[in-house]
């Protein structure tokens, strides 16, 4: 796989389909596809532009968030052998629609049910993080490393339901983009992230990037995360095993 070529394609699509619409959306270019779940013209057009160009590089099934909305059966491709491109054309759509720059493009190359390469592209600063299995996580030539493990009272992270963890750590927040949570983890800007909603386009690339940056990631039931159709449980990502155990003990 030409990793650099995929990076270039993602950037070109972001520049052509996403950035021109940022802070320029009309009301008729935003709709609610499910309660409290927005989709914009940028989402649909970016996915439409990405899918055929990625298939030209490695022919396979495309599992895109917006395509699955139209045809949920395409998700079953993740349960079979072969090449699957997993796409979230605009992660953080609510942020995007509200003129908040905390949004990103996520692409993963999954082969036989295992993520082999993951990309997260942050369009506003035009920065891309990419990880290839066994090769580390990189941002435009700089190798990334998760934060060092620290005591609970010094940890910062992202959770949706604060629960007991908020009373034990330094700070928790949730800012509307799984992609940016993964970028913050891989760059050492936060220590942990906890997810309850495990759609493959949100996590296939990010889990690999986090692990290649040296982090620990698995479901609270102890199983490894895989980008498949029916993942049950909660996903916790931390800098290492001790911090994983410490945070997991505080989760419902």
TrEMBL record:
PROSITE patterns: IMP_1. The keyword Ribosomal protein does not apply. GO terms for molecular function: inositol monophosphate 1-phosphatase activity; metal ion binding. One of its GO terms (biological process) is inositol metabolic process. It comes from the Bacteria. Mg(2+) binds at residues 65, 88, 91, 202. Gene3D superfamilies: 3.40.190.80, Fructose-1,6-Bisphosphatase, subunit A, domain 1. The keyword Metal-binding applies. Its cofactor is Mg(2+). Keywords: Hydrolase, Magnesium, Metal-binding. InterPro entries: Inositol_monoP_metal-BS (IPR020583), Inositol_monophosphatase-like (IPR000760). It holds the Pfam family Inositol_P. Belongs to the inositol monophosphatase superfamily. This is Inositol-1-monophosphatase. It comes from Magnetospirillum moscoviense.
